[in-house]
Amino acid sequence: MPHNCPLSLSTLLIDQQTVTPVAPGAMQFFVNILENIGFSCQLLPFDDLDGQPTENLFATIGSGSPHLLFAGHMDVVPTGDTALWSSPPFKATEHNNMLVGRGTSDMKCAIACFVAAVARLKESESLPQGTISLLITGDEEGNSINGTRKALAALKDKGISFDAALVGEPTSVEKLGDMVKVGRRGSVMFHVTITGKQGHVAYPHLANNPITALNHLITALTKEPLDHGTEFFDASNLEVVNIAGGEGVDNVIPHSATATINIRFNDSYTSDKLISWFSDHCHAIASQCNVACDFTKRVSGESFLSTPGAFCDIVTNAIKENTGIDATRSTTGGTSDARFIKDYAPTVELGMLNATAHQIDEAVSLDDIESLCSIYQTIIKQFA
Ligand SMILES: [Zn+2]
To answer: Which of 50, 92, 235, 303 has the fewest CB atoms within 10 Å, measured from its CB?
Structure first.
């Protein structure tokens, strides 16, 4: 088995059915591959509250500093209707210079490229000084409870720290390497309930309509833009995603009304700052409209920016050297496990084209597989 071949490795990984979460035992095949190359491996299984144990893998080669972490996930999203695929989703298939299969883009090929990059450097005795580690997790596409977050905490407890982290999520848009992610927006969800006084629609002076108050609240919240964007981020955005109220009849002013509001925020904010801003508006409406205005909130991640610096330069220079492309440094898109990793080391995300991620006939080009392996080799060499 040629471990230095990113295409062969990709095929091996894609042929494993690893729909999220990855079950205990399912990473053993990968442990065998990594140990053959010279990595020492430890499995990090964690249990969910509802009994869905997840397997994660930490593998290390070399010793001392600097310590480069490559982070990725082995789990994939479900296939959807397999009859719609032009080839079996868990049988990597070459077609028209593309490799088709679930997880090609997101993100088994990137894992394969990084591992093959290490194997090639080792063979040519050009692995640089220091340590290279892999953290390959099993629930990124699921609830993200038993993967990266717990694994990094466990590694920290063992005294393991990193100088930089490269995440292999699919960040490229039209050409391999045209975009790297250097941060992500944060996200907070509010669920607000306004309680007024129920009454006859013909006698509004005997009631207090919570929908009117909710309308005032939303108007106040959306009156001004949250900001106008920052150097690396688009403007923060507030979206009302649900409004509900009414007693199911036409002649009753309802008792209460609710709204669900999501804010994606940039580095002008912390979730605490937005929660206090939201709370101030709720208090104002409560007193202005003489209603009760209560809310719950859920923060799914803070905004973050990996200080554009040495590591980001190494990554974009490696792209330029191998492809000639000047990568855009972006903070767009949804969340990834980089939101946990950035608390431990400067983090940059670079991987395959994301055009077909999660889709039927997910695929990446064979040329990109070879090219990403070369870029990763350059990053590893330059990092030392
Ligand atoms: Zn992913």
So the answer is: 50
Contact 46, 54 (CB under 8 A): yes
Q: Is the omega angle on the peptide bond into residue 45 within 30 degrees of 0, that is, cis?
A: no
Q: How many Cα atoms sit within 13 Å of 238 on the Cβ side?
A: 22
Average pLDDT over residues 38-45: 96
As given in the structure block, the two tokens for residue 167 are 């995440």
At 23 the pLDDT is: 87
Specify the pTM: 0.83
CATH 3.40.630.10 spans which residues of the chain? 6-184+303-383
Backbone angles phi, psi at 109, to 5 degrees: -65, -35
pLDDT at residue 51, as a whole number: 59
Catalytic position from the list 55, 140, 302, 349: 140
Between the CA of 233 and the centroid of ligand 1 the distance, in Å, is 21
Q: How much distance in Å is there from the Cα of 103 to the middle of ligand 1?
A: 8
pLDDT digits (tens, 9 = 90+) for 305-343: 876 678 999 999 999 999 999 999 999 877 788 989 999
Q: What is the mean pLDDT of residues 219-226?
A: 97
8 Å CB contact between 20 and 75: yes
Ligand 1 centroid, distance to 128 Cα (angstroms):
28
CA–centroid distance, residue 145 to ligand 1 (Å) = 15
Q: Is 364 helix (H, G, I), strand (E, B) or coil?
A: strand
Distance 203 CA to ligand 1 centre (A): 56
**Among this protein's residues, is 75 annotated catalytic?**
yes
140 is catalytic: yes
Buried b (16+ CB within 10 A) or exposed e, 153-192: eebeeeebebbbbbbbbbbbeeebbbbbbbbbbbbbebeb
CA distance 220 to 226: 12
Q: Which CATH class is domain 186-301?
A: alpha beta
Find the mean pLDDT for residues 185-203.
96
Residues carrying CATH 3.30.70.360, the chain: 186-301
75, 139, 141, 349: which is the annotated catalytic residue? 75
DSSP state of 356: T
* pLDDT digits 0-9 by tens, 244-264: 999 999 999 999 999 999 999
Give the CATH class of 6-184+303-383.
alpha beta
Distance from Cα 179 to the centre of ligand 1, integer Å: 15
